[in-house]
Design goal:
With 355 residues, the protein is α/β, with parallel strands linked by helices. The chain has a 6-stranded mixed beta sheet, sandwiched between helices. The radius of gyration is 26 Å and the shape is elongated. The mean pLDDT is 85.
Length: 355
C-alpha cells in the first residue's frame, strides 16, 4: 500500500484506454479551474467534446490520405482518384474545419491560462490605484510619494470568465533620487514587461502639459518599443480623468479613465478582452492547452504544404502523401495516439494530487 503519485489514477485511465490524453489533461484543468467558465470548458473537454472535434478532423484526413495512397498504388490505371473524389475540395473543407477548431482552442487556452497584463508608467501615474480598482480591493499601497511601489504586486481578476493576471510595477524613471531598492524594483518591472501579453502604458492627465513629464513618457515609450516582444499590444491608458479633461488627448488607440472614481474601467475591461482575442463563446467551448495549439498549428502548416503539392499532382504525390501523414501524426499527439513517453511523464507529473 502506498500513496498515489501525482496524476497516477488518471494516467492509468489513459493507459487502459478509458480516457484519451486530451480528456486526461482536462481532469487537471478542471481541478485547477479558476473561473466558472473555465470549469465548464474543462468539463466539456473531459466529456470528450474536444477529442470529438479532433477525431472528425482525423477521419477527414484519413479519407484524403486513402485517395492519395490509392493514386500512388495504381499509377497505371486510367482512374484519377483525386479528381474523381474532389480531393481539392476535401482538402479545402478540412482546412476550414481545422481553422474553426483552432479558433475555439485559442479561446479555451485563454480560459485556462489567462492573460498577463502589466501596468507600466511613470511614478504617481496611478498604477497601484488602477490595480486596486480592477481588483476591487486595496492590494497595493497608494501614496503621493514617488517610488512607493518598489516590487511587483500581482492579482488575478476575471472578466466575463476570462482570468487576467494584472501586475502592478514600480514607476519607471531615471533619476538620481532612485535608491538601490527602487532600482531593483524598476529592473523587475522591465522583466515583467518583457513577459507580458498586454502592456497598459499609464499616463497622468494632470501632468501631460509639462515638458519634463513629456520627455520622460517619450523615453519610456522608446524603451517599451525595444522591450516588448513583437505582436504584444501596448494600450495607452490616460488616468485621473476626474482631475483633468481628456479633450486634448487622442483616444483612438487609448482609453481615458479615473481609477479613483471608476470612470472608464468597463471600457478598459472590454478593450482588454478584445486585445486578448476573446469572443463570446457558444455552449460548445472546450478547454485547450498550449501544446494543443502548437499541434494544431503544425497540422495547419502541413496542410498548407499539401495544398501546394496537390496542384502538381502527378509530380509530387509522394510528398503530398508524406505531408498528410505528418498532419495526422500531429493530430494524434493531441489525443495521445502518437505521444513520446517523456511527454506523458511531464503531463501527469504536473497534477497536484494523485487523482
Amino acid at each position: 500500500l502506498r500513496v498515489a503519485r501525482a496524476g497516477e489514477f488518471t494516467e492509468r485511465a489513459f493507459l487502459n484506454d478509458k480516457l484519451d490524453l486530451a480528456q486526461a489533461e482536462a481532469v487537471a484543468d478542471l481541478i485547477d479551474a479558476s473561473t466558472e467558465a473555465a470549469a465548464r470548458s474543462a468539463s466539456r473537454s473531459l466529456a470528450g467534446v474536444f477529442s470529438g472535434r479532433i477525431h472528425e478532423l482525423r477521419d477527414a484526413l484519413v479519407n484524403l490520405r486513402m485517395l492519395v495512397e490509392a493514386t500512388l498504388d495504381f499509377p497505371e490505371e486510367d482512374i484519377d482518384f483525386l479528381q474523381k473524389a474532389d480531393a481539392t475540395g476535401q482538402l479545402r473543407r478540412l482546412r476550414e474545419a481545422l481553422a474553426a477548431v483552432l479558433a475555439q482552442a485559442r479561446q479555451g487556452a485563454l480560459l485556462r491560462d489567462g492573460l498577463q497584463v502589466v501596468i507600466a508608467g511613470q511614478p504617481n501615474a496611478g498604477k497601484s490605484s488602477l490595480l486596486n480598482a480592477l481588483a476591487g480591493a486595496e492590494l497595493a499601497i497608494v501614496t503621493p510619494v514617488a517610488g512607493t511601489t518598489r516590487d511587483v504586486v500581482q492579482q488575478t481578476i476575471q472578466i466575463e470568465g476570462v482570468p487576467l493576471h494584472v501586475v502592478d510595477t514600480a514607476g519607471l524613471r531615471d533619476s538620481p533620487d532612485v535608491d538601490e531598492v527602487e532600482k531593483i524594483g524598476i529592473e523587475r518591472a522591465w522583466g515583467r514587461i518583457r513577459q507580458a501579453d498586454v502592456v497598459l502604458f499609464l499616463h497622468d492627465l494632470t501632468r501631460t502639459d509639462t515638458l519634463e513629464y513629456q520627455r520622460a513618457d517619450a523615453a519610456i515609450a522608446a524603451s517599451l518599443a525595444q522591450a516588448v516582444p513583437a505582436g504584444v499590444p501596448v494600450l495607452h491608458v490616460w488616468n485621473k480623468l476626474d482631475q483633468s479633461p481628456a479633450a486634448h488627448i487622442d483616444l483612438q488607440d487609448g482609453v481615458a479613465i479615473s481609477a479613483k472614481r471608476g470612470e472608464g474601467l468597463e471600457v478598459l475591461r472590454q478593450r482588454l478582452l478584445a486585445l486578448a482575442g476573446w469572443q463570446q463563446p457558444g455552449d460548445g467551448l472546450f478547454m485547450a492547452r498550449t501544446r494543443h495549439l502548437q499541434a494544431l498549428s503544425q497540422v495547419d502548416g502541413h496542410l498548407v504544404q499539401a495544398d501546394g503539392l496537390l496542384a502538381a499532382q502527378a509530380e509530387h504525390l509522394d510528398l503530398l502523401a508524406e505531408e498528410l501523414r505528418l498532419a495526422q501524426r500531429a493530430l494524434g499527439e493531441i489525443t495521445g495516439e502518437f505521444t513520446a513517453d517523456d511527454l506523458l511523464g511531464e503531463i501527469f507529473s504536473r497534477f497536484c494530487i494523485g487523482k
